[in-house]
Fold these 2 entries.
Entry 1:
Amino acid sequence: MAQPQTQAGSANGTSNGERQDPGGFKLKFCTVCASNQNRSMESHLRLAAANYPVISFGTGSLVRLPGPSIDKPNVYQFNKTSYDSMYKELESKDPRLYRANGLLNMLERNRGVKWGPERWQDWQIGAPRLQHNADRGSEGLEGGVPDVVITCEERCWDAVIDNLLERGSPLNRPVHVINVDIKDNHEEALIGGRGILDLADSLNKAATEEREANPSGFDSGIAGSRAGFDERVPEIIGEWQERWPNLPSVWTLGWF
Amino acid sequence: MATPTLSVEQQIKQLDEARKLVLSDATYYERIIQGILPIAAPGARVELRRWVADFLAETFASPWVPAHEKEKMSLIVLDTLKSMIENPQEDAAVVKSVVQTAASLYPVVVRRIINEPNDSQTWSKMLAIKLRILRIWDTATTGVRICCIKFAQRVVLVQTNGPAVDPRNGNPLEVSLSMVPPNHPLMPPMNLEAEASGLLDRMLSVFQENISDAVLVDATLNSLSILIRARPHIANRILNVILNFNPLKQANSPMTPKLRVMVKSMEKTTRSLLVHILKRDNQHPLAGKIQQYVERMMRSKSDIFDEVSRKRGPPEPTDGLDAAKRQKLAAQVTSAPPKFHVPPLDPGPHSVAELFTVTTDDALKAFDVAQLSEDMVVKIGITILQRIDVDMLNQAVEGVRKRLKIMSEIERLVVTSSTIPLDVEDDDDDYEPAEDTEQILNKLDAAPPAELVKLLPPAPEVALGKFKLPDPLPMSPEEVALAGRGVVDRLFGLMTSLDERDKKSKSAGFNRLAASTNDRDSWVTIITRIATRASAGLEEADGVKVEANRPTPFSMSNTIREEMYNYVFMDFRKRIDTAVQWLCEEWYNDRMQMKRGVDAILHYEKWVLRILDGILPYLDSQDRTLLIKFLGDIPGLSAEVLGRVTGLCVNPSTVNMALQSLLYLLVYRPPAKELVLAAVEDVWNTYEDARPVVVKLFVKYRPDYGERFKAAEGAERANGVPEVKEVAAT
């Protein structure tokens, strides 16, 4: 199950060393954009390379990739077409065009991460994901319930929240849903991916600190003396926002 | 699994392997859970306890584990969950997982208890967990508190009425109060509903606090959608609270990055929930208000955040502006009750239905309520009456009253004006009388009969003033007796359906009230009081009438007494306390009656004797304490009662019992001393075989028994005939 890890994109060199340490606590992440192609996949790869458990989704109705002209996009179905087959199709259609606009590069990256784009709305939260064990970042998310969902566009955040409200929170599992607004192009996706990794590190640090043994117990009346992870999330995001002023964020605590 | 030689890391690795196994095949869950519970013992390493708690939370949340499996496993894990959450030293992460597990388990357990109403053990464990969660709700860390909120939300969902569904359906979201039978012994629906209402208030109180913690507010908002959707009768209550919530109120204080995130989050989350509700149901009664709120929020938000980003500090006016806004909002809610307009009726005849139709919506008017089933109408009616605004109701009633007033006036006019043409012939109506009958017949042919019915009768009825129901026909004595029997049967039916109280919990003593608890004891008290007191003083006449050659008139009291006697007699060993309680009531009532008058009819003596007569033949030597207790507890003794006891001496196996109970009375009921000694004397004289026992027991009180016994023995030896008479004379 262990993926041979490349050191690529290791903005977070320290966590690579922790990979072999099963005791090191890792928050479980989920990244979301419209088509599960560019922004969510860039951050998926980044988080996976930093050894975080991560999965990713798209909230659109269909996977839309740019075509030869603006009114002729390449449209695929979620969950049914693999990155690999998209790659092959586009390569056979017009390799020059799709190489030039970066689509083939993107698909090349994506097919190294997982099989194909998945749609958020069709995702059965809490369903075991053992069959995804070849995906990057799958280790730790076998149970299919992430702790943090990071969307890459406010529209996607809205769709995720609306969908969670729609599902009626049957699992009773809390989830932090954070939007990090990233423009949908390759350059911005790279920057956004770095921002998201920074956010993930900050959150994970707080979560790890919370889990360090606390002998006083939860009911000892001095709960305020050491703020827990959930409580610190707004603060962490606030500080992160100061560091990344060009990636406007929204956060809420939702329920699966 | 937890071999001590393994390190914690190795153990967790093993556990992870086990977890992967169950994730791939859900049939192993039960076995794995049984295997891992010991690992989470209180003394175990915190890493292991966390792992187990988290695994439980995951398992019971999983949509892949079938509901009946969860139910089975819930029985196994409740003890562990209980001990974890009740441990004040427990790790916060463990508690957080336990509360999540409990939220997922709650509907599962409730459904089980619905189907197994006698499983009080499981239910009490669940209750203990619930109690603990609700207790730590306010004091625990934020991470635990949000899970407590979610737990409360789940309890509210379960304990409110939902749409009727098949209870076998596995979806935990569909367990609702509607599935709980009204007479459930462990979960009375009324209590469940009241608790849910209280919990909902507690959940919603987060919106009324001055300082809002965004984590708690968001956790609440994001859990409310299912309640609003699936529980329409509490939806408006929830929405009204949200609509009065101002997520931007903290925007006045200096904007730290953290506060900025929190305010923005609360505003956005509130808006998301409301938009979600609007999107699903744009016909919602509060749709207009929601729309306004959403628009206002978006405006204020852009005001605040744009300004803040420009000036890097809180702008002064926001403060005043905000307060004004809040005031306005509050004023709107309190001082402007919805104006309810009842359109006056057009002149002309109207049906009763039209009279009471206050809506102006034509589609609604066309709806025939008779299509609905009766109980549904009743349910709707009750719900409406519970929810309706008093002002609105008053306005509607006033409107209908006005209509009636106008109508009755018109009616008077119409009645007079339609009689006038017949009596006084107008010029215009000259030839009308000639065609009158024909016209009417034509009309009858033309008009559909239904309309006629609608047209004709209601008008005068509406105009009528008072209507008095005729008095019912007097009931025959047989009917009275039958109805009375029915009532008594109901009383006893209810009593036997109630639980018998634990012997342990019985300690109220003199402070015990007749009906402080809804158990069998209380009902016994009520029933005996109905029997003894309700008709006390009314039955003197009956006593005389019995002499007459007529059937005994029905007496509620005596029927109850008869039933009571049967009830006690059926299982007298267990119900002897009930008998004593009843006889005390009888005795007390007799005393009260005797105070009132000399010729009171007394019941106590009669029923003591009946009970004794009933049970004495069944007593054996084992029942000594029973008899002693009964004789010791009943409030009055008489020679006749003791006579019944001495009667036991005829049977060698009960001689001891009879005499020992007499001894008890002699020692512990001094006022009865003379009576008892007389009874003993009687035994001495009547039952020769009992004499040795009499001597043994009573020689201390009547030393002469010993001598008499010796004398009698001597005499017997001398002539072979016991000289009873002679001895007795001394």
Entry 2:
Amino acid sequence: MASQVVKTDASVNLRAPRRRRLRWYNVVFTALGVVWLIIAFYPVLYMLMTSLRSQQGYLLGIPWLPSLHPTFENYATVLQAGFVHYFLNSVIVSVCSVALIVGCSLLCAYVVVRSRNRAVRVIFDVFLVGLALPIQAAIIPIYVLITKMGLYDTLLGMILPSVAFGLPLTLLILVNFVRDIPNELYESMGLEGASDFRLLRHLVIPLAMPALISVSIYDFVQAWNNFLFPLVLTQSDSSRVMPMAIVSFQGQYTMNVPVTMAAVILSALPLILAYIFGRRYLLRGMLAGFGK
Amino acid sequence: MGTKMNWQRWLMIAPAVVFFAVFALFPMLMAVYYSGLQWNGISSAKWVGLANWGSVFRSGDALHALRLTAEVMVLSWVVQTPISLLVGVFLAGRQRHRAVFGVFYFVPLLFSSVAIGVTWSYILNPNFGLLDALLKSLHIGNGNQNWLGNTHLALLVVTLIIAWQFIPFHSLLYQGGAKQIPDSLYEAATIDGANVWNTFFSITLPQLKYTLITSSVLVLTGSLTYFDLIYVLTDGGPGDATTVLAMDMYKQAFVNQNIGLGSVLAVILAVAGVILSILTLRFTGFSRMESQLEGM
């Protein structure tokens, strides 16, 4: 962002005349840009257009054009087919996972940064190795464990392993952020005899707020879209979350594509709204510190 | 407060440590143990030592899955990296229309793998899909190509859809990187009379070196675990044409109920993940990253 704002006079002078002249390569770039626009966005547009068609319109109409008689009946069908229930399940799982991941990581990150303890260092290194472990590699024992705990087919059964696998990256990002807080600030507050909890509340949390928001968004998107945990750890209607709901709509309405497309659009509703109202925060959150 | 540990601080790290130990580390170790069992998950297990490992490497299936995973990795890198790089650099430009394009380019990021998989399976459907209808109206091909049902095409098509899903993320990375390249470098190049290609290859690309490494490693580690999309699109088929390692693991364990064989594949996945990740740390210094969130 900063580089956009900071513009020296020289650059303005140099760029102004250049921009007015139409360069052949800029025309080519824009043309390629339009091609990519079609590839990247048209499938999404297709989702939207199809979701607004009637079943008959889908079978008879021209598939690549919007319907002349758009209808919301598919959305109504989806909402009546238990969608709200599945949506709320996803909200519960995602919000609980994010709260636990970010809360646990923040406390842990603070201690990792503030203490010079050997054991803590080793623990942090183990978390870093955890970054490398794919969920798929642990899913079989997780299934056995969750079943033995009596949590199979429950929302809690999905939340617990999601937290464990969300921790490493969140912790790493927060450690790096907390580490950037100048030591003098801790010292000046520490001299007043502030406890760890006061330091956290009045110094670390306010300063780390941008990072906390970013990782929360990242973890939310991960939890919202997670497919493997619900696939393996749940089976019934009552614990069905969004991605599983799409799969079951697809199975249930095999020939009724518009209904499934409406479910697909609705399943992304929180992210679509976030994109419309806070695009910059959402995109920054999705990068989760991989940027630069 | 100094730098010493006290009971309160141990209490502060306890929740994270317990969660991670119980639901990530312990299962990982159990996967190693399970790989020595003959067990269907219900009846009592029998310890068979390395027998599962032997049968995995003797049977062609696992090697086939490994080869497919490697193919997906390479193909994903080849497809995703150049396009993401170009799109990212394109979006980093100052022209107003490019910012508008960017708004649309990133929209695929809003959908889950499952949503994307279901949508593309309809687009590619041989009976009523969009693509075949389009091709038919343009008189290209016979208009009923079964994109995902064709053994020779399926893996390529799946990889292209994976690319469609992930290119927006990587172009976001490159856009962030390209925006941080100082203007002065470009001005100097303009004064020197460099043309657009020289500028790209002697300024933009070298300045994006670290972004390129980060993005490449993410593509490679990501390719190891593509599962959701493949599950929805082909379920590993036709035959075993798209049964990559993660899919093979899932099928062995949860469809064939062969926990031992599935666990062998899970351990292989974990080892591959750790190796790739060590390379990540080595080449990107990711663990030491600082102020990564600037420059968006």
